[in-house]
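Hi everyone, sorry if this is the wrong subforum. Our group has a chain we'd like a structural model of before ordering constructs, and none of us has done structure prediction before. Sequence below.
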Amino acid sequence: MRGIRAVLPTAVRKRITFGFITALFLIALGFALTLYSYNQYGQESKEIERTYEITNRLSRLQSLLTDIETGARGYSASKGDPLYLKEYQKALPLLSAELEGIRTAVAKNPAQMANADSLTSLIDRTISSVKRQIGAVENKVPASIARAFMLSTNTRMDLVRNTIEKMSELEQGLLREHTLEAKQSYRKTIYIIFILSLLTLVTLLVSYNLLENELNSRQKTEDQLRAYEDELQEKIRLLEISNEELERFAFVASHDMQEPLRKIQSFGYLLRDRHSAQLNQEGSVYLDKILQSAERMSKMIKDLLNFSRISSKKEPFRPVRLSEVVQGVLNDQELKIRAHGAEISIGNLEVIDAVHSQMDPLFSNLISNALKFTKPNQPAEISIRGEFVGGEEYEELISGKKYYRITIEDKGIGFDEKYIDHIFKIFQRLHGKSAYEGTGIGLAICKRIVNYHKGYITARSKPGIGTQFIIVLPEKQIQSVHDNTAPLENNTYLIGG
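Answer:
Right subforum, don't worry. Here is the predicted structure as tokens:
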């Protein structure tokens, strides 16, 4: 399903998702309504069972009362034959259990509960009358009195029968009502299942039809996309070949340019050392400018070679102790540091995966930059510190990945932050060559090194306050060999001469 979502347009995905959600909702609704109807049907079934139980108990109660009445009447008619009291004695103890069962069953029905109370009272009085009737026979009271007891028993027994009949009629009415409701609940369940199943089927068919149409539409364009992809791959291959040839040309051209430049420098120094007396002041000035330009050209060629080697020379990533790299750079630049009277503070720098040979020019260029752009007649103040950060702090990096941030801060002349995008481009300068030495390649080299390490570099600065360069590099590298993935830097105009 995730693969289908990835290739479908947003609008189609929304419609299909809505369709499936609707179908799931209908299924859930059908299940809920079916469960509700089933519960209702179950409740009605329980009510029906309860009604049958009450009716059966009333029938058994009436049968027990009939046995009691018959036994007492036979005992009276036989003038005390104990044989007739057997059914009476057997039925009498069972009355209480049946009455209690009836009262429990009708507890939720106030009308029947009132009838049950009345029935209990009538039965108690009837049993008392029966016992007096039997006692009259045992005591051989006059026949007229015994007959009066028997008539009283018959009257009360009729009242009991009427009450039982009344309760039975009420239960029969309830039975018909619950039976009807149970049938209606069952029919409703069938209707609900059928209607919701039909709606679910229609929804699924519409969603399937929409999905099939979209997939068919995409299938028609897939061949064209494949053709575009093949064409793009070919162009990428040609571009890679062109880039490799361009980098090779830059390396060879820079290397070959050093030979005639060395000759210009050698003959220039020979001319100055051996024939300076024969040159007038103007000639000496011209010769000095030639030597200065040759020296600047030599530095530029060396920087171009370093810039080219970054992309052409591939080395494996290895654990690099940054504190040792920085200390080595400071040792190499000891004379320059002393000349500027620089105070350099270094924090605790950790070990990261990096190309060792590229860490030296990275820190060398940044520290040289900090020393170069110090305020006039003030000692340089430089601090270097590092800390681990998460990729989510920078939108250019991978969120959730662990990085190491190095901050190189100085108290120099600073610059306007509107030039941040320019300073990392090759041959880009913010100051004239006469004010500050340099080729305009150093920060471009830093940018390329950081890009090759899948990192991020930026700067924060204010004129007259200082500059802070921020380098963020991955703690661990996935590749075992450094790959050429840095973009080509643009050759742009010079700022300030």
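For your construct planning: The first helix runs from residue 2 to 7. The first strand starts at residue 318 and ends at 321.
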